[in-house]
Known about the structure:
Structural class: alpha/beta
Strand order of the largest sheet: 3-2-1-4-5-7-6
Number of helices: 9
Distance between the termini: 32 Å
Shape: globular
CATH superfamily: Vaccinia Virus protein VP39
Strand content: 15-25%
CATH topology: Rossmann fold
CATH architecture: 3-Layer(aba) Sandwich
Radius of gyration: 18 Å
Helix content: 40-55%
Largest sheet: 7 strands, mixed
Number of domains: 1
CATH class: Alpha Beta
Amino acid sequence: MSGMTERIYPKDTNKESPIQMLMSEILTHRYKVACDWLKKRFKNKPLRILDIACGVGYGTEMLSELGEAVGIDIDHETIEYAEKHYSNDRVQFHVGNADDYSYLEALGDFDAVVSSGTIEHVSDEYVFLKWIRKCLKKGGACVLCFPSTFTRDWAFPFHKRDISPKQARLLIDTCDFSIKNEFHRRYRFRMKDLIYEKDSNRALPVPPMKHWFGYYLSHPHHFGRRLLQMSVGGGILFTDQQYLLA
Length: 246
């Protein structure tokens, strides 16, 4: 797993790492919920599904049980891994940028779009979600997943924003979606497990110390919340959001 929250490799997960095991559970659960809901919503109709920012492709393979699944990711090596480990005759993997809308438009229309951990990375979350609305066929659906806990202290420079549930509802409404269901799941990363991951996973991109100082100076209330989490629960709280939209 590279970047702890940026990529997971289920087939290569270090089973000695509680953090990797928990992140694998969180992210694969997102896709399981997506598959179950889309299957029920479309009554087993064969679908064309876009998995935007698909990572190594485990979720795209899961979605291919519902029809044709197209997985897009910005990283060439990640797509090569996906093609090697998760390809089948219903899956296509392509290198593409979630901020390149001319490229995305060339992919055509979809019955459903799954966006797992994408919207916190793109340049403009409103433009991104409006593009999803535009690319969906009539009656189409979207599954939107991202963390709601503040993350930019440890996820710098990958995360460009944190989105609270209140902000999420405004975003969804502005982009002409309605919420059919939503889930808010709470997980806790224990400090000893985070320290183990930092020491054992050399691929983990830890922000420089000057970033932590700068971030907490400009977000002192976040620093207080982090200290409270560690003193009360012995770790860091992670809250995951998932919205089922149509």
